[in-house]
Amino acid sequence: MNKYRLITDSGADITKEMAQQHEIDLIPFSILIDDKEYWETIDLTTQQFYELAVKSPTIPKTNQITTGRFEEKIIKCLDDGVQDIIIVTINSAGSGTYQAALNAKANLSDRLDGVNLHIIDSHTYSIGYGYPVVEAAKKLKAGKSVKSVIDYLEDWFAQVQVCLVGFDLRHMKKSGRITAAASFMGELMGIRPIIRMKNDKTMVVQKVRGDKAVIEAAVEYVAQTLVPETPWTLLRTTVTEYEEAFVKGLTKKIGYPPAFEGYSGCAVSSNAGTKMFAILYKTNLE
Predict the structure, then answer these.
(1) How many CA atoms lie within 13 A of 46 on its CB side?
(2) What is the DSSP-derived secondary structure letter of residue 29?
(3) pTM exceeding the 0.70 threshold for the entire prediction
(4) Residues 106-134: pLDDT tens digits?
C-alpha cells in the first residue's frame, strides 16, 4: 500500500481507465439532465453525455462534491495508513468543491495527527489540472518526494491558462457561467471568439470572422502566449475537423505536438457546450 494518495474530481476530464492506470482516486461529480441524476465516469461516458446534452431542452447542471464525500475519502485514507494525502480540485472561482475539501479537513482535524493533508486549488478547469495530476502520479510512482510533486503542481497552476475557441455560443449564454461569452453577440454573423480564461477572469481576446480564420488566429495567439518549450494540452468535444486543423497548425508553428489530449466532460460541457475546443497551457500573462 502506498503511503501517499492522490485524489481529484472528475472535472479533471481524465478517464476512469487512466485514473486506474495511474492510481488516481477520482471523485465523480453528479449531473442533472432533465431531472435525472447521473454520476460522471460511472453512469455516463463523455459521448453519451454529449448526446443527452444536445437533446435536452434545458442546461445540464452539475452539483459540487460535498464535504461529506471528501470526509469519506479522507477517512478511507486514514484507515489504509496513508501518510500524505494530496487533493486537487476544480477552480474554486467556479465551484464550491475546493471549500468543501477544506471543510472536510477542518472537521477531521483531530484525526489527522501525523498525516499530511494537502488540498490544492487548481485555479483552472478540465485537463488544465487533469494533465498535471497525471504527471504528478507518474512522479510519485517514480519515487519523487511529495514536496517536489506539490511544487510542480503549484507552479503549473500559477501559470495555466485556458484558450477556448467557440463555434456555438448559445449554450454558453444560457448557462451564464462563461461571462465573456454571455456578452458576445457575434455568432449569427459568423464571427467566432477566442476566449481567454485564467483564475476567475474571462475575456474575449479576439473576434474572428469564419471558421478557418479563427483556427489560424488561435494558432497565432497560443504560439505567442505559450511559455516557450513548455507542454500544451488539447481539450476536444465534437468539432473534430477544427480540432485536427488546430493541432496540425500549432504543431507546425512551435515544433511539437500536444502533451495530452482529452474530451470535455460534464462539468465543463455543461457550461461551455459541445461545439468548442480549448487549449490549456502555461503562459506568463497575468
Answers:
(1) 21
(2) P
(3) yes
(4) 999 999 999 999 999 999 999 999 999 99
